[in-house]
Amino acid sequence: MKKLLSVLLLFNLTAAYAQNTTHFGIKADANLFKLDGEGIQSKYTIGGQIGVFAYRDFSARWGFQPELLITQANPKKSDDFSAKYIHGSNVTANTNIKLNYITIPLLLRYNINDIITVNAGPQYSFLFFEDENLLNYNRRAFKRNDLGAAAGLTLTFQRLHVFGRYVWGFTNINDIDDRYKWKTQQAQIGLGLNIK
């Protein structure tokens, strides 16, 4: 009985502590997106992100921050795409490509002080919409899943957050063949607003 009471007391204290330190809000940012690989222009193009975030500090220094975002990316086909992918490439393909992802960063927080926080952790992205015609017969050129790592810095001014982040993609998202790898990189700067 004493053990049960101790567990219940610990649970109640933890829940009360978590309620005092759990926050959530909305965020938006400019997303500079680059896709490295053969047949694609290896340069940053502007896109955007919008979504929600939550965070909980477990101590004065450490915390956890998951996010749920919609990401828009706009890579461009290079002039040598048809030469690289001779079999199946659409010679009249558009140069501009639009990719929309559901993105889930799971970030560890380290609070340097009340204003400056370092964020780092894994990020998963799921491609739910693409507007591209790189291949004949409506074949898809991009894989659905992209796994990467994110790291950045957040400045907190009461309810307002200003942040910058860089994301390295680990996954080869080229779904055409295995000869060439396409990997993503993203540089982000934006604003977040605490709702609670």
Task: Explain what the structure shows.
It is a single chain. The protein has 196 residues and is mainly beta. It has a single domain (23-194), classed as Porin (Beta Barrel). The protein contains two helices and eight strands. It has an eight-stranded antiparallel β-barrel. A hairpin with a 2-residue loop joins β6 and β7. The two termini are 37 Å apart.
Name a few traits of the molecule.
mainly beta, single chain, 8-stranded antiparallel beta barrel, 196 residues, Porin
Q: What's the total count of β strands?
A: 8
Q: Approximately how much beta-strand content do the residues carry?
A: over 45%
* General shape: elongated
Q: What structural class do helix, strand and pairing data support?
A: mainly beta
Q: What summary fits the major beta sheet?
A: 8 strands, antiparallel, barrel
The helix/strand series, from N terminus to C terminus, equals: HEEEHEEEEE
- Spatial ordering of strands, largest sheet: 1-2-3-4-5-6-7-8
List the quaternary state of the chains.
single chain
Number of domains: 1
Query: What name does CATH use for the topology?
Result: Porin
Helix content: 10-25%
- Going by CATH, the architecture would be Beta Barrel
Low-confidence spans: 7-19
Rg computed from alpha carbons, rounded to a whole number of angstroms:
21 Å
Distance between the termini: 37 Å
> Mean of the pLDDT scores?
89
The number of distinct helices, counting runs of at least 4 residues, comes to 2
- What is the CATH class designation? Mainly Beta
Protein name: Outer membrane protein beta-barrel domain-containing protein
Domain Outer membrane protein beta-barrel: 18-173
Signal peptide: 1-18
Organism: Chitinophaga terrae
